[in-house]
Amino acid sequence: MLDLRDVKAAIKQLTSEKGFPETKIWEIIELAIARAYKKEHAKKSEIIRSKIDQDDGSIKFYKVMIVVEPSMLREEEEVGEEFDYDDDDNIDLTDKKIRFNPDKHILLEDAKKDHKKIKVLDEIMIPLEADETFTRIAAQSAKQTIIQEIRELEKTLALDEFKDKENELVSGTIQRIENNNVFVNLGKAVGLLPAKEALPLENFRIGDRKKFLALGMKESNGTLMVLLSRTHPTFINKLLTMEVPELQEGIVEIKAIAREPGFRTKLAVKSNSNDVDPVGACIGPKGVRINALIDEIPNEKIDIVEYSDEPAKFVSNALSPVAIDEAEVIADTREIKVYVDPNLLSAAIGKNGQNVRLASKLTGWNIKIYSSMTSQEIGDDEE
Fold first, then answer.
1. Are residues 143 and 23 in the same domain?
2. Could you tell me which residues are beta bridge partners of residue 220?
3. What is this structure's pTM?
């Protein structure tokens, strides 16, 4: 007889922490006990099931016999694909035959002697003598079965939950940090934020709740994990879209993103309505919308500029907040020469050339910056 207090406490913990269905946990325990019983009292080819009384903890054991008919059986000399039924199998006899095994098969004709309404592939449950005293080896086997089945259940639930969430935002709690890799509790799955997908200089504390971009799934040491990122440009896209109704409705769209994670991002946005200012919509009243994004990535500067089909205007916007005096478009080489006030040269270039470099990435044009007075060239590759 099981100690129901301990079993039910363990099941409650698994259902609350992992979101496992309680009925499935009971099935796993019954499977493990049946396998332990089989090791002690049954033949390898026999199918054994157990049933736990959840009220008093008592356990009943059964031998399962599968009802078959002669047309399903394979002759000894017959060559072909064989179907074998085990206690974990799903039955599918399409174009397959079985070799009759008296330990687990019973002919329909014989089954009908005691079960008038029995049909092919029905199961006959034959009660066995109850014996809950297993050897140490059998008990250890039951424990291993439970661990293995719980892991498989974790994988199944994780796949169901996250298989359609690639390139979507997910939220989770920092669980542990090992070798600069961050493990995240996502509820029904474990998330892995590799060091290369974390923002530079970003510090995590155990228990912090953060948002991430789901990149896909990866199995590691038998555990199915969701790969996460906070450096991907789509992460910024999803964060802003979550805060801006006009982006969700398609009134405003993000046309391009250029990002140096952890330092600076430029976004180009376009309005599909003459009545809506795309930049203003993304910033929000008193900056409330953009501030929500900045709160998630506080060390990264965010520039939102208006997209334009006109290259010179788009480049001018991309270099914001610096105003340009003149722009010369060289279409053949996709180069744009930009002239700015000498006093604005440093701002136009940005720290370590970051502003002009990101503007070039955002627009797709090679931007060369000149002083309006001296025509000194500063390119997007200037350090």
1. yes
2. 223
3. 0.65
